[in-house]
Amino acid sequence: MKHLLRHRTPSRIRSRTTSHPTDEIPLLLSSILQDPAIALPALRKVHAKLLRHGLQAHAALSKKISSLYISFDEIDAARRVFDSSPNPSSFICNILIRAYSKTGNHGDSLRLYSTMVTRKGLLPDKYTFPFALNSCAALCELRIGKLVHQHSVCFGCGSDLFVNAALVDMYAKCGEAQMKRLQKIPGAEQDRC
Asked: Where are the PPR repeats (predicted)?
């Protein structure tokens, strides 16, 4: 009986209820979508709390907040999360490229793609290329499209079905329908060019 009383002292109860911001933010994020009427204002509050406590470098939280902002069509807010993160993930970059492409902001999509391939730590993958190629097709940017094609091969995604479908679409829309079927690019046999 004494051991039960010892565990219920006020100091032990208080220490359990006091939490660090990183403990409560995921709980707040998971509850945001339960009430759509308050979801966006609640998300903004959680994001402000994240910034107040200097947690913008927390990769998992940044991913979740960016995804939620994009689900509310708040692409600019998601971009601010990306820009404020010292080490943004390829995931956040991909969802932004996709969002820009789907909303017709093809120039922004390609600028972010360019940032991705030139910034250390951000690697394009099979989720990146279809949306970058879609933006190339929409803008009839054959030169950039060919560069994205080369990157897709260099990064090992040249045989992906969705990448190939986007390539065929891009070449057709840019007037290169007669191009030989998605030839390998010379010198692109390496894992990374």
From this structure: 89-124
**Closest among 116, 175, 123, 120 to 145, alpha carbons compared:** 175
pTM above 0.90, yes or no: no
Q: What does the block give as tokens for 186?
A: 């010379």
Rounded-to-integer distance, Cα 38 and Cα 15, Å: 30
Q: What's the token pair of residue 64?
A: 């979740």
d(CA 123, CA 155): 8
Give the CB-side neighbour count of residue 183, counting CA atoms within 13 A: 7
Q: 126-148 burial, b if ≥16 CB within 10 A, otherwise e?
A: bbbbbbbbbbbbbbebbebbbbb
The residue type found at 69 is Y
Q: 170 pLDDT band (50/70/90 cuts)?
A: very high
Q: What is the pLDDT of residues 102-154, one digit of tens each?
A: 999 999 999 999 999 998 889 999 999 999 999 999 999 999 999 999 999 99
Contact 165, 130 (CB under 8 A): yes
Inter-residue contact 190 to 153 (CB < 8 Å): no
Structure tokens at 182: 């998605």
